[in-house]
Write a structure and sequence with these properties.
Helix content: 40-55%
Shape: rod-shaped
CATH class of the largest domain: Alpha Beta
Number of strands: 12
CATH architecture of the largest domain: 2-Layer Sandwich
Length: 459
């Protein structure tokens, strides 16, 4: 059943329900008509029984000829007078003097009015319905029996049954065809969307499904699917840009690495020149390793697989650990690296990931900025801010809104080469902690970059 098309399945279900409705309605009509016809026959029998009882009283126990004929409305009606033992005292001609009730039934009629149904008696076609009524006479109580054939009732019921047997299936077939056609029209937009969806490929991500007019379920489904396609297109575009940018970033150090090694092989004249070439190559390899690590962090964050070992950490400990890595570099370049005493600020996060983010920010400050580099923390209610500020020229104003996008670099103000992934990694780690990364220029110059993470004091 599940392999059948939806239109056929719904039509079959509709037909089954309608068949049940038609059968129930037909049975109801049939029984109602039968009850109404039986009620009409019984009322006629009561009326004729009253007339017959009056005649019996007047005649002393029999039915006079003229009166007898007046009790016969048609060939299918009759009357008879019996004793309480079932002997025939008088009868309409078509019964030929044969008793229509058994002695037990006659006794029941003598005790009170009673209805009976019998096979056809002589001279009458079809089964009959009888009403036996007691009536006083000169010789005691007699039983007056009036009857009527059920042939007309049975013929009417049979005619209704034939009409239902012919009309019911015909109406069911017509309703099913109309229902199937209505379903076909209603599902036509779905088929159109299916055909268009089958034609959409990765080479045409901007294609959309046709949406029917209106505001029904299919229209809302079409808009929802188109919105999903839009999100997929945006995701594909981001991935395409990511692959293109990553390929570009990897190509440069690989090319330099290859060139330096080739030059060393061809032109190195002594051990010092060869050692210098190898040292430079090792530096490029370190850059490649760092770039690969950064790309891995970004990829895992997009797949929501960036695992975190969350713990309560003092901001001062984080700053001191990161500062130790850069003190010699800062001294060598004549820069000051200051760590503020923020022992009362506790953050909740992954120590290694937060150190990675702060390392990237401090590296950017030393590489691209100028002046003193300051590390300090601020408590902000349920969250805490870990700041890295420098005294350089700051970010270009038009760069600030895009500072944390992947492979984005400032063209002016802050100088130096880089992969363009540093601040993107910072933002990725901050978001993985449920916070965010921010950057601004100080009022007196310099850049201030900070990450916002949950505070351990608020939990």
């Amino acid at each position: 059943m599940s392999r059948l098309p939806i239109k056929l399945r719904v039509t079959l279900a509709f037909a089954a329900v309608m068949a049940g409705v038609f059968v129930a309605v037909g049975l109801f009509l049939y029984l109602q008509l039968g009850d109404r016809l039986d009620e009409s026959i019984d009322n006629g029998l009561r009326s004729r029984a009253g007339d017959a009882v009056a005649l019996v009283r007047g005649s002393g126990g029999g039915i006079q000829r003229g009166a007898r004929e007046s009790l016969i409305e048609s060939d299918e009606s009759f009357a008879q007078v019996l004793t309480s033992e079932g002997e025939v005292l008088d009868s309409t001609p078509q019964l030929q003097g044969e008793a229509v009730l058994s002695p037990a039934e006659a006794q029941q009629g003598a005790d009170g009015a009673a209805f009976f149904e019998h096979p056809p008696p002589p001279g009458v076609e079809g089964p009959v319905r009888l009403l036996a009524t007691p009536a006083p006479s000169g010789d005691g109580t007699v039983v007056v029996v009036v009857g009527s054939s059920l042939g007309d009732r049975d013929e009417a019921l049979a005619s209704l049954a034939r009409l239902l047997a012919i009309g019911g299936p015909s109406a069911l077939l017509l309703a099913s065809l109309v229902g199937y056609a209505a379903l076909a029209v209603a599902l036509r937009p779905v088929e159109a969307m299916r055909r268009r969806a089958a034609e959409i490929s990765a080479a045409e991500p901007d294609e959309r499904l046709p949406v029917p007019r209106g505001d029904d379920e299919l229209t809302r489904l079409g808009w929802t699917l188109n919105e999903m396609l839009g999100r997929l297109e945006a995701a594909m575009e981001r991935e395409r840009r990511f692959v293109d940018d990553a390929s570009h970033e990897l190509r440069t150090p690989l090319t330099l690495h290859k060139t330096e090694l080739e030059l060393a092989l061809r032109y190195a004249k002594d051990e010092n020149e060869l050692r210098t070439a190898i040292t430079s190559a090792v530096g490029e390899i370190d850059r490649l390793v760092q770039l690969a690590e950064d790309l891995l962090v970004v990829a895992r964050s997009q797949e929501k697989e960036l695992a975190l070992a969350v713990e309560a950490i003092a901001a001062a400990d984080l700053f001191e650990t990161v500062a130790q890595r850069f003190r010699s570099r800062a001294e060598h370049s004549g820069r000051a690296l200051e760590v503020a005493d923020d022992g009362d600020v506790l953050v909740k996060g992954d120590r290694l990931r937060l150190e990675q983010a702060l390392t990237s920010v401090v590296d950017n400050a030393l590489r691209h900025g100028d002046g003193e580099v300051r590390l300090f923390a601020r408590s902000n209610g349920a969250s805490a801010e870990l700041h890295v500020a420098d005294g350089g020229g700051g970010f270009p104003p038009d760069y600030l809104p895009h500072a944390f996008e992947r492979f984005t670099r400032a063209d002016t103000g802050r100088t130096g080469a880089g992969s363009g992934l540093g601040l993107a990694i910072v933002d990725t780690i901050a978001r993985a902690h449920g916070g965010g990364a921010h950057a601004t220029n100080g009022p007196e110059g310099g850049a201030d970059v900070w990450i916002e993470v949950p505070s351990a004091l608020s939990s």
